[in-house]
Each structure stands twice: as C-alpha cells, then as structure tokens.
Amino acid sequence: MSLYVGKGLGAIKEASKNSTSILSLKAGESTEIRIIQPLEELISVYEHTEKINGRWMNIRCLGKDTCPLCKAGKYASFRTYIPVFDRKDEKVKILKASKTVGIAIVGLAEEYGDLTKRDFKILRQGEGVNTTYQFFPRDPKEFDTSELELPDIESLIEPMSPEEIENLINQKVSDVDPTVPEEEGGFPF
Length: 189
Prior knowledge:
With 189 residues, this protein is an alpha+beta fold. The protein contains five helices and eight strands; from the N terminus they run H-E-E-E-E-H-E-E-H-E-E-H-H.
C-alpha cells in the first residue's frame, strides 16, 4: 500500500464520497435500520482494535502465526460488516457486528427469513464489555435499494503487511512529556 496524496477539491470530494459511516449508538439509544445486503454475501474478518497515537484504529488480523499484534499478546475480535440503511440519518452505514450480535442476526433470519425485506429497530444497552443489542422486527414492506450505493467493504478491511503493522505499533507516542534541558535555559523556540 503506497502513501496517499490527493490534490485539489476533487480529492476532498472523492474522500468524502468514499467515506463510510459506521453505525454507532450510545447506551440506551436506538435507530431503525434496513439490512441492504443478503446475509450470505456479508464479509467477516478478525481484527484488532488498538489506540495508536491517541486514535482508535481497526487493524485486520493476519493470523496468530504472522500477525505482530497477536505475537504481542493482543486479542483479535470477530467482526461482520453489515451494510444497513439508517432511517434516522437516511444514509447507508455499516453495522460492525460482533460474534454475539451476528448469532442474534442469524437467529432473526431463521425466524423471519430474508432480513432485507423488513426494517428493524436496534437498541443498544450497556457500556463496554457489558453492551448488548436488541433487534425488534417491523412488518415486511417494500424498500427500493437500487439507488443506494453499497460501501466498499473490501477496501475497509484490506490487510496491512506485517511490516506495516510493526511500523504502526512502533509509532505509538510516548506518554512521557518532553523534558527541557535546564542548563540551556529551555528550548530555543
């Protein structure tokens, strides 16, 4: 993967067009969604979530024998990327489902059939590892997805090389404040 350099307003427009929102709910918050891709087409990966330079990043796991994060004792989580239409924002987003949420969605599919045929109210409860999601199915109704653009999930989950991951984790900024050399009266700026 080479370094990105974009020029002009076209680069800004292109970046904002390709940016995909992740469906994010706070504890007690809910929204209405429509799953817009059949379950058998969904993409699942193992990924690490790490705070690097004060920013949370998702890094696709390369497998415990190859992945520098696994070798460093970091845990990778199973995630399924589910394209949904968020009725509240009227926007396509990605629901990143944990294995637990994925199992709940499989149960809904077994009970209700094709999940793209109805809306669901999704409610988040709890914080951190105590977070749960509840799904409340609505009656089936038509929804035209022909004008919706599916997010490019492949580019979101593109794996880095082991060297790129090593470079990233070696970039972590130290928590120690820089010291001022006393004998020189401080920095010259």
